[in-house]
Amino acid sequence: MKIKEKFKIITSGIIQGNPTFVLFIGMCAVLAVTNTFSSAFGMGLAVIAVLVLSNVIISLIRKLVPDDIRIPVYIIVIAVLVTVIQMFMEAFTADLAATLGVYLPLVVVNCIILGRAEAYANKNTVLDSFLDGVGTGLGFMAAVSMVSIIREIVGTGAFGFTDPFTNTVLFQVQLFPQQYAISLFVQNAGAFLVLGLLVAVINAVSNKIIKKRELKAAAKKVPAVATQSEAGK
Amino acid sequence: MSGILVLAIGAIFVNNVILSRFLGICPLLGVSKKTENALGMSYALIFVVVFSALLSYGFYWLVLAPLHLEYLALTSFILIIAAFVQFVEMFLKKYMVGLYKALGIYLPLITTNCIVLLVALDNVSLGFNFLEMLVYSIAVPLGYMMIIVIFSVIRTRVDGNHKLPTPFRGNAIALILAALMALAFVGFGGLV
Asked: Is residue A59 in a domain?
């Protein structure tokens, strides 16, 4: 039971509370770094690291911080964490850090991280906040991966992954000849287009699920109502 | 002088902060439903970007660079921005009630607007002199204003369209509209 509850914290960050497709926060990074899967994956890892660490630290200090100045304190914690991660990435994954460019320091103002600190970590225990960080981070990772995989395949006809630590190409598959690729998808407009279409697909699917649930609930109610009205006759 | 002009046109049209650098997307989706809100947000943004850029640029070259503490740039800039926005909010609330009513609700949103931090970081990392810094800090939010105002005008018409399929309503169609605008702005590509 306990484990099930903990597991729920993680899944709610990925599905019901997905930062990108449900809450529409932290969109800049989703659009900016998704032209290749490798860079999107790197950004996803960086966001997960910052989010988990900031959630844990803020949950640890939640009783020490006066309520009036909590937001500036959170911002400093997040800024320091981002600086550390940025230095780490510049040292060990220099090419990835160069590809992500200014979007790496801009993780500081990514609303996902401050949002989870304010909405979750300052009210919950360290373990729960850690799990929430993992879940929400994975939700972000899932979103950037989806967008980047579509953009890379349609835009270049190929799909590959480069290990950021050693800079070796782990695999590279050409799915269809490059001359048939729609290069628009790896350009700026493609980012908006793919995300817009994905949001529409997700809306359609979730509408269908909600409708099915309503029908099921209605089907359960109908026989009861029918027997009642028959009895009335 | 022509270098300054190229910098300004580049920041407004070619490397537009929304369409080609993907920043400030959250307010684009959130605030742009009404043109007057879009304008209010843009005025507040221009004001905050220019002054926080001046403060952070000064702080970097007068304090951080002489002490070799450049790695603190990110932390100190975000603090400067947050403190400045808070200060402006209090000042307007006390002394300029009319302006506060017009811009007040947008100010807290601006602290976490990536554009303010981007301009502060760019001013330092691109090695601008004082004049270039000033022009860049005005041009970037101007480019933002242009897009968000045009976008809000298009959006008021699209949102009233009942033929739109349900799954596309709201943010999905807004993102696709942004894609079409980005396509149009590719035309400025070779300008600078």
From this structure: yes
Q: Which long-range CB contacts under 8 A does A36-40 form with residues at least 24 apart?
A: A36/A148, A36/A152, A36/A186, A37/A145, A37/A148, A37/A149, A37/A152, A37/A159, A37/A160, A37/A161, A38/A96, A38/A160, A38/A161, A38/A162, A38/A164, A39/A96, A39/A99, A39/A100, A39/A148, A40/A144, A40/A145, A40/A147, A40/A148
pLDDT tens-digit map of B164-187: 888 888 888 989 999 999 998 888
Please report residues of B whose CB lies closer than 8 A to that of A190: 179
Residue of A nearest to B183 (CA): A189
The answer, for B187 touching chain A at a CB cutoff of 8 Å, is no
Enumerate the residues of chain A whose CB falls inside 8 A of the CB of residue B79.
72, 75-76, 79
pTM to 2 decimals?
0.86
Per-residue model confidence as pLDDT tens digits over A48-82: 999 999 999 999 999 898 887 888 889 899 999 99
For the question of an ipTM over 0.90, the answer is: no
Reference B145, options B5, B6, B13; nearest CA is B13
CA atoms within 13 A on the CB side of B137: 24
Q: Where are the domains of chain B?
A: 2-188
With respect to residue A211, please indicate whether it lies within any of the assigned structural domains: no
Alpha-carbon gap: A2 to the closest alpha carbon of chain B (Å): 36
**Quick check: B185 and B20 in contact, CB under 8 A?**
yes
Where in the sequence is the domain holding A81, given as residue range(s)? 2-204
Report the SS3 class of residue A174: strand
Tally the domains of chain A.
1
